[in-house]
Design goal:
The structure is a single chain. The longest helix is centred in the first third of the chain and has 14 residues. This protein has a domain of 31 residues. The protein is an alpha+beta fold and 82 residues long. It has a two-stranded antiparallel sheet with strand order 1-2. The relative contact order is 0.09.
Length: 82
């Protein structure tokens, strides 16, 4: 067995030596490679924002409900003023 570096556990040494060459570091996307938001995507997002609301229940779970036009559902956050 190879000697471990000072301050490194055997598990961390195993991970660095044997697992990372196969799995590699986490992939982080490059925001410069993304595409611009199309007008169709903006229109869809606006329509969904108008039709759906995120509601937090009494148990702390959040879920999405449809809005029937008039009043927002009970427990729905108030829309920002202005």
């Amino acid at each position: 067995m190879t000697p471990t570096r000072p301050g490194r556990s055997r598990g961390l040494t195993f991970t660095e030596r044997f697992l990372l060459p196969f799995t590699g570091p986490a992939d982080v996307g490059d925001p410069r490679r993304g595409s611009e938001v199309s007008p169709a995507q903006r229109e869809r997002a606006g329509r969904l924002t108008g039709e759906l609301r995120r509601v937090t229940g009494h148990d702390g779970r959040s879920y999405v409900v449809t809005v029937d036009g008039g009043e927002p559902p009970a427990g729905a956050p108030e829309p920002p003023a202005g």
